[in-house]
Amino acid sequence: xxxxxxxxxxxxxxxxxxxxxxxxxxxxxxxxxxxxxxxxxxxxxxxxxxxxxxxxxxxxxxxxxxxxxxxxxxxxxxxxxxxxxxxxxxxxxxxxxxxxxxxxxxxxxxxxxxxx
Amino acid sequence: xxxxxxxxxxxxxxxxxxxxxxxxxxxxxxxxxxxxxxxxxxxxxxxxxxxxxxxxxxxxxxxxxxxxxxxxxxxxxxxxxxxxxxxxxxxxxxxxxxxxxxxxxxxxxx
Lengths: 116, 110
Hints:
The complex is a heterodimer of chains A (116) and B (110). Chain A is an all-beta fold and 116 residues long. Chain A has strands at 4-7, 10-13, 19-25, 32-38, 45-51, 57-58, 67-73, 76-81, 90-97, 105-107, 111-115. In chain B, the strands form two sheets. In chain B, strands 2, 4, 5, 9, 10 and 11 form a six-stranded mixed β-sheet that branches. In chain B, strands 1-3-8-7-6 form a five-stranded antiparallel β-sheet, with no helix packed on it. Chain B is mostly beta strands and 110 residues long. The A-B interface holds A 4, 6, 34, 42-46, 49, 91, 93, 95, 101-102, 104-110, 112 and B 32, 36, 41-46, 49, 89, 93, 96-103.
């Protein structure tokens, strides 16, 4: 149980375009979902925390107008990278949490974004 | 802000040997720690966790040790196998969010 999927697994887009990444909890309801970014050979950095039905909370330095997060249901959160640039190329990973704040986060397989 | 860090960025061990991956944390108020394994191109995979009211916890072939006095966390992997090759991250639960350490790449030599 506790499977999280992401779609697409890889995406290549042109500079200036937008791309949407989906994160789904397949067998549980996620009250909270998290979005992370991971550059090559670096650690995961939290971008934002998303609670179902409310606005996402962004970490310092993450532009909320560039990285749009929607958490419309208990099983789906989306991250839209708007007006993507080559420096946005990264590995984007989501996680989902079923219980309270200290409960386990289940991670998705990640989405590799390449902006040309 | 406070952060979680690792002593060794890379570790190479012989197959069958035991390996120890270390992590230092700076937030003395942290009460929950997790070790993750990440294979190339994949998301983190939960290995084992420990709460601050414990100093040792064992799983299958893995043991996590917590030394609160020196704010140090370690992951011991017994009888390493080729499938153990990956990057290992410690993470600290801070204000309901996870703060990840830098990561250690573990390579298993045949």
